[in-house]
Amino acid sequence: MQGITLQWIVQKTFHNCLLRDYLRVEKNFSRQGLTEVKRNGSLLVNDVPVTVRSVLQEGDKVTVVFGPEERSGGLRSIELPLHIIYEDEHILVINKQASLPTIPSIYHPDRSLANAVLFHYDLNNIPCTFHAVNRLDRDTSGLLIVAKHRYAHDLFSKQQKSGNVKRTYMAIVHGHLLETNGFINAPIGRKEDSIIEREVRTDGQEAFTSYEVVQYLDEETVVRLTLKTGRTHQIRVHMAYLGHPLLGDDLYGGEMTKIQRQALHSYHLQFYHPIIEQNMSFTIAPPEDMLKIMGCS
User: Is 137 among the catalytic positions?
Assistant: First the structure.
């Protein structure tokens, strides 16, 4: 399998600049990422192999070829349903189904989004391993980003950490929220007697969630939520903290009479694609189990 290739034309700003500095400063290569290219890929200027100490001239064509990536021995390629919303050489935007973990675990070693993505790569001769930019809980459905190579993963992870990957969720919660919108600022940490459950606690990590009421149902509220941080179970913990746990979320006090999983869906994703230099936005409707409760099916 051929490695993924990127090319750029050197602008006047980087005339007489070292290739190493051009890639580190202009293209935001990490030190580790550049080392990996030197070890397993190749660097060319005007189609001639060079080292990172090559001096660039305005108008030079810089080519970076990434070597094929090694996969973890425990990460298998498995044919599973995969709903790809968008794909290019660098990323996938996927609508993940409920009941599918993002990555394998001891309980689900061969049934995860990672297994499905690797099967897609193998089927299409894509020399990549699995790089999740953001993750969703096993029973949360909706949009997430998967990077195809380390460079894309590094760039998108930086955007994620700086809050420039905008994620909006739809949830159905028990009861009627008194305020039609609000902002939850409550730190989250692991519950002392559990390896899974989280809770609001003073010594937890800071966590911020914005919410807005979309629709009042007879006994529930449909809520739109935006994350300012990305803590484990953040929306589930914050809504339970307000006294309005998600339907189906029995871990945090929700009832499972109307839905058999937490009623949470990542429905909107917005970000700047740093490699193709475009703003991108994707929206996907909630699945049937949530739409039925909302009276939309």
Answer: yes
The pLDDT score that the predictor gives to residue 106 is 79
Helices and strands (H and E) in the chain: how many: 6, 16
Q: How far apart are CA 242 and CA 176, in angstroms?
A: 11
Which one from 21, 60, 88, 137 is the annotated catalytic residue? 137
CATH class of segment(s) 168-265: alpha beta
What 3-state DSSP class applies to 145?
A: strand
Fold match between 5-65 and 70-162?
A: no
> What CATH architecture is 70-162?
2-Layer Sandwich (3.30)
What local confidence, expressed as pLDDT, does residue 1 receive? Answer: 44
- Tell me, what's the pLDDT at 67? 86
CB 23 within 8 A of CB 6: no
Q: Is the pLDDT of residue 186 over 60?
A: yes
Mean pLDDT along residues 25-40: 91
